Amino acid sequence: MELLVVITIIAILAALLRTAVSQAKGKAQRIQCANNVRQLGIGLRAFVTDYNCYPLRSNPGFARVGAYPEHNTIWMTGIELAELSPTVTTSNRETFLKVYGSGIWKCPAANKPANWPQNDGYESYGYNAYGVTRSPNADNPVGLGGHCGWGGTNGTAPPVLESEVVNPSEMMAIADGFVGGNGVILDGVWDFSRTQNVPDKLGSTKRSNIRHQGKANVVFCDGHVESPTLKFLFEDTSDAALVRWNRDHLPPREKLSL
User: Fold this and answer.
1) How do residues 181-214 score in pLDDT, each as one tens digit?
2) In the list 33, 62, 124, 154, which could disulfide-bond 177, CB 3.0-4.6 Å?
3) 34: domain range?
C-alpha cells in the first residue's frame, strides 16, 4: 500500500513537472517569435525609409527595366536585403531565399505536421511573406502588398505608399502566418489575412491555437509588437478589430468578408 502511495505521488509530481516544462517552453517560444517579428519590422522600416513605399506582394516584372527596380520578388527578399545589408545588390537576392524557413523567418512553434500531404507544400514556416493582404485592388484599402488592378503583369503594382497608411501604429504588417474567419484558422500559408470559408486542414485551427496559446505575434507598421488573440484577429467584428487590417484606418466590413 505504501509503495502504491509513493508511486501515485511520483506520478502526480511528474505530471505537474511536465506541465510546467511545457508552459516554460511555450513562453520561451513566444518570446523568441516576438523578437523575430520585431526584427522583421526593423527590416520593413528600413525598406520603407529607403523607398517611401511598401514592398509589392510580388513582382514578376522585376528583371525588366523600369518595372519597379527598387522592389524584390516578394516581401521576404525586400525585408531581408534591407535588414541584412543596405549595400547588397538585388542581383544576388536569390541567395536570401535560402534563409526562408530558418532564422528570423522561422517561428519556433510552427512546424510542418507529420501527416501533411507529401506533395502539398507547407508554404510558411512561421510568418506571412507578403505583408498583411487579401486580394488587394484599386479601391480596397485592405493590406500593404500593392494595388491590384493598377497595372503590372500580375496586377499588384503600383506599391502602397508610406503616406497611404493613415495610422502606422494601428496597421498590422507582419505576423504568424494564418488565414482565418468564422472560427476556422488555416496555417501553413503565405498570407496573414481575414477571410471566409477557409478549410480546417488536418486540424489547422487546433494547431494554430496551440502555437502561442490562442494568440499571434504581430509587428505593426510603426515597428511595435503585440500579441492579440486569434479570436480578436479573426472573429471580432468591432471597429477596433477591423481597422487594424486597413491602411485607411476605417472598418469596411464588406471588404474584409471576402
Assistant:
1) 889 999 988 788 888 788 899 999 999 999 999 9
2) 124
3) 2-97+123-256
